[in-house]
Amino acid sequence: MGDYVRVEDSHDGLVATLFFADSERENQLCWAAVDDLADALEECLSRKVRVVIMASALSGHWLEHAWLEDLCAGLEGRTQTGTGSGWFRALNALADEAIISVAAISGNSSGGGAELAWSCDIRVAETQVVFSQIESNAGLTTGIGGSSRLLRLVGAGPATEMVLLGRPLGAKRLYELGAITSLVPPGQANQVALEMAGALTKKLPQALVGLKKILRHAENVSLNEALTFEQTTFQEVVAGKGALAAMKTIQAAYDEGKSIAEVHDYQRWTTS
User: In the list 54, 82, 186, 192, which could disulfide-bond 35, CB 3.0-4.6 Å?
Assistant: First the structure.
């Protein structure tokens, strides 16, 4: 691993938290740092980590926008800090069905950093955090999901305003719009993400793989095609190893008189 990412394992190695920090650049993502991040994600996949948490070790910042000096250097034929392939390798790793990604967003996020957040499966953000797609301010377009994924998360109106004007939106507003999955008080993103990760490790891996496949597939096809794919995936999982035992365990708890809320631990999560 390089100089930018520190990995902490928990839950018997099933969860890995990737703490990113580049104090010199205030977490703007130079190519070397993104290569380092991609290396860490790919290593998690090779080690069969089931949940990866993307976190920051720099106060006030999560992952920020691409370091513009590297972009300029590439256009001018000058030396860059890294290959730049890390952007796409990181996205491919986050999309892999074998791993669930949780963004624990404790500081502001912009540009390419926000695009990496939009690509995660779950986004936990603290109330003080601000997100922005700053590309139009630098004469650029978004390149890895800052328009396409954001539009699917929040709708055309808010996404258009963010990307054309470069207008920042706070975590609370993005939670209301659906881009943030959990909104938490300052200082709690990492802990809440760890609690979520722990809950995920207790679920049948094949079920989570199947559900991630269904969710990602449904983003890009018609409802009819999505429903067909969903049923096909269900049939594969229900006939696979472990599903029958899991269902019998839950049914036994019902038979003992426990309620649905008790069996599925509703109290763990805040509901509205």
Answer: 82
Q: Which domain holds residue 22?
A: 5-201
Nearest to 189 by CA among 132, 127, 115: 127
Strand pairing partners for 16? 9, 52
- Tell me how far apart the alpha carbons of residues 12 and 197 are, in angstroms, rounded to a whole number: 12
Signed CA dihedral, 171, 172, 177, 179: sign only: positive
Q: Mind giving me the DSSP string for 15-53?
A: EEEEEE--GGGTT-B-HHHHHHHHHHHHHHHHTT-SEEE
Q: Are residues 175 and 84 in the same domain?
A: yes
Cβ neighbour number for residue 200 with a 10 Å cutoff: 19
**In this structure, are 145 and 196 located in the same domain?**
yes
Q: Look-up: residue for tokens 């096909």?
A: 232
Q: Is the pLDDT of residue 25 over 80?
A: yes
User: What was the pLDDT predicted at 272?
Assistant: 41
Tell which residue, 16, 33, 35, has the closest CA to residue 193. Answer: 16
Q: State the pairing for strand pair 5-10/15-20.
A: antiparallel
Tokens of 265: 């631990």
Give the span between the Cα atoms of 203 and 191, in whole angstroms.
19
Mark whether 154 and 210 lie in a shared domain.
no
Look up the pTM and report it. Answer: 0.89
Smallest Cα–Cα separation from 58: which of 147, 190, 165?
Answer: 190
Q: What is the average pLDDT score of the chain?
A: 92
- Return d(Cα 220, Cα 236) in angstroms, integer: 21
Report the CATH number at residue 84. 3.90.226.10
Give how many domains the chain has, as a whole number: 2
